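Field: sequence (string)
Field: structure_tokens (string)

Example rows 1 and 2, in order.
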Amino acid sequence: MSFGPDGRLWRLIPTDNAVFVDSSTDNGKTYGNPVKINSNIQKISTWPENPPAITVSASGRIHVLYYADEQQQSTSFFSYSDDNGQTFSKPVLISDHADSAMHYMDQMLVDNNNNIYTFWHDARDDRHSHHSAAGALSLYYAVTDEPATAEFSNRFISGGVCSCCRTAITFSPGGKPVILVRMVFPDGTRDHALITMTQNGQWSKPQRTTHDDWKIDACPEHGPALSIDTQSRAHLAWFTLGDKRQGIYYAHTDDLGKTLSEPMSLGNTGHLPGHPDVIALGSRVVLAWVEFDGNATDIVIKESTDRGLTWSKDRKILNSSAKSGHPKLVSNGEKIFLSWTSNDVGHHFIEI
């Protein structure tokens, strides 16, 4: 979900063999007719840990990333619209190694100058294997300000990235990308690190931020969440089953991960809390996550009005006994909304 500069809400609808986009002018109460993005039939991924992404720029351009099978090769495609979603460009590959290396876990940011940043997990090289345990890939990105050229210059960010955990990205107040990623450290520990783009366009070395000491030779499939407020405080939420902590947690950092506030446990640990999201808007911070009691899934929220120093009690706001996705928090710059999909009701979009 993404709000455009005119307040219109844009939504992606993935199906088994196509991706559609529609929009709403009443904050998700009603939607217009959907527009198909891919003209050719493709096997579309609907894995909640690797969902398609949509971002609308300040100029109104609509950008879409989605993951699909193309001629037996699983890869990521980019498309955009410059006519308010009436038509979309022919989807193009973002990886220049798509024919030989798997890449997925796509994320996208668009800055105020219409620079499009795409990020993904990539298996093209073995730089990670020299210093990390099994289950690690590399993190790559591309940036362009002219998508019509269909050229995405692929650039390496870091090795040692946990292959199956979604990476979280956002902009700093200065307009540079910041990444929160689960790393696989040399001893096999899977903890998180922050990576930041400097003003000269270089990437910092990963700054280890969480110290839960989770060692596992398996796929957690449980990526973190990140939001940065206007005063540069980074708000983090994550899942761990480490020696020091188990469950989902929230903390914040004012120095990009060098020091971290005392992690706050979230949810009812007897109800398998997981897949948290976090968003900051002014002094307000909202957390959302799922809980499962053995029969039904609840969406639970918690919020702070003082930048994460004190918090409200947990509040259950949605419930479903059917299969469902991960909660996603979205803002239009004035209000905060929750997006969540369940098979029994469909798409929920409500103001928090």
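Row 2 begins here:
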Amino acid sequence: MTTQPDAPAPTTSLPSDGSPTVLFTLTGPDRPGVTTAVFQALTRSGVEVLDVEQVVVRGHLSLAVLVTAGDDEAGTISAVRVVGGELGLTVTGLPGTGDNSKRRRNRLAVTMLGAPLLPSAVAGVAGRIAEHGANIDRIRRISRFPVTSIEMDVSGGDGEVLRRELTAEAMAHGADLAVCPAGLARRGRRLVVMDVDSTLIQDEVIELLAGHAGPEVEKQVAHVTERAMRGELDFAQSLHERVACLAGLPESVLDDVYRSVRLTRGARTLTRTLHRLGFTLGVVSGGFIEVVAPLARDLGIHHVAANRLEVVDGHLTGRVVGAVVDRAAKAASLRRFAELEGLELSRTVAIGDGANDLDMLATAGLGIAFCAKPVVREQADTSVSVPYLDAVLYLLGIPRSEIEDADEDLAPALPGEAEAPTGGNRS
């Protein structure tokens, strides 16, 4: 069979820069039939529609329509004003020439999150964008609960420079911010890899295990864990030191600990939504495969990497088996998962909270520090400071309304929608 070349794109009737056009803006109370009435008036005027933007906020309509001027520009403007007056709308008709100017290159998606999101944060970020000669082309709200988030379409700016400066500006006002390439770069399948302890779950598994060894051991392990997460200790050394404290515990405590772990709020929403989008999920943990693997299975997470505890005669020996999953191993695991999925690293997202996650966050296309230590927030691409893991979805440009609509559609159960095991405290 002979393959024919693509046919040339059809020509359009869009006006040249010198052709007369009219920009209408209509504002006022929204109600059914407003848009119909406005466009029926334009139909009678015999013009062409070139661009439309409409938004409704708390029942207040803002509608912008760009049309060709037609043979009777004054008559067109008068017709729309009459209809607008009948509907209780304020109408302006601005004659001019040409269509919208082509948006500049280097298009970016700038997402801001706040609880609350303060005007000073928006003003500060918008000011920095303007200082760099970039332009905000469009703004929309992504979510109102559990955090308020907005997304700005920005063009004409240097992504790396804006990321550094806008992130710092947002943080100064108590907000989180992400700068990502816009357009096709945000679409399509991705790999999302998460840390487990204090990220996917609220707990540190080794501390839960230590709780079965008595209060003194629990206190000792918690102290070493905190120093390791701050980057003050070599992770492998601290892991061996903490695991040694667990020697003699019966193997059965692993099941007890698994049943007691608490998912971070929003974890099920995050995993369920990502599965619906066709994303692939992975977890990498400095914790233990005996707890992490069944947790990943419950959430439908395909890729897993974690440490393995040595068990002899039904008891923990206080040693780990094989190489330690440390900072470098986490990054290597992300690369391996991406290769198995046939995805470029630019198509990966990593989420973590501690110094042990820094290499993984730096390797991913987008590294997100989740409720993280200061050193991690400073080095990650972006951060989420609120304790809701599903806020990550907003950084990916997924509106809360679409998440809720998908849940209400009562689609067949997907991985990540299983009920919590009996006795578990799952959010």
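free_text_note (row 2): The first strand starts at residue 20 and ends at 29.
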